[in-house]
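haha ok so turns out i had the wrong file open the whole time. this is the CORRECT one, sorry everyone. sequence first:
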Amino acid sequence: MTVTIRQPLPLLDNDVLRTFVAIAETGSFTSAADAVFRTPSAVSMQIKKLEEQLSAVLFLRDARSVRLTEGGEVLLPYARRMLALSNEAVGRFRMPDMKGVVRLGAPDDIGERFMPTILKRFAEIYPQIMVDLTVDSSGALRRRLQEQRLDLTLVNCAPGTVSIEGEVIYKEQLVWAGAKCGTAHLRDPLPVSIWEDGCCWRADALSRLDKEKRTYRIAYLSAHTMAQRAAVIADLAIAPLPRSYLTDDMVALGAKQGLPDLGSFEVRLLTNGQCSETALAVADSVRFAFSDMIGMAA
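then structure:
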């Protein structure tokens, strides 16, 4: 009897899968190389090896973008599951006591722009720690913290605010955001899109308009940055926003358009004074993420 001996299927390398996922998520070999701490040439070699193992092309590349092929789209959920399972297994042995629930707060703009990435990275490192995120105004988040309903929170505040303790982890300049090729800034009274009372961006913007004796009306009032952005892009109003929040369909307005320069704001990290080891791990992850953003902007 003839016995057919089949070659075992190749084993996929988690480091290579991590690179593959990074490319899929960033849409760039260069950005993925930064994310996995490798050179672009090393990343290219990893993907070449992976494609040879699977006998499939995983990415379509042109001068401006990288996108998944049909085969790449099939592999992506498998890769994510394999990496998650690997992280969970390693975490059970290397950090057996690091588990539990941490209650974290963040203002709307941070919750929308930064927290998904921060929490995703955190879950990869500490798969047994669950983070419950509450998104609210800075004032409401401070009250929740005082009432012990949060373990730690991020808040926005004006520079040098002495009534709010905590650690300053980020600073950014505010600008007047207007629609690209828009005319809202030419109207009189000036239509402004702002947040509710208690927002430091609102306080800075309105105080500077009052100082310049510029007439304005609150044309759009919302506690959500997505609504603010929609009002700006539709050219219904202009709004005070962090410079990094501007998208391609927005422009920064200033003195040339007859508007007063705006100040900056701080992001502070506050704790309830009784932080567990798991809460401290979340705090360290948040600090690292914001320091990384500062380094990229420098």
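The mean pLDDT is 89.
again sry for the mixup
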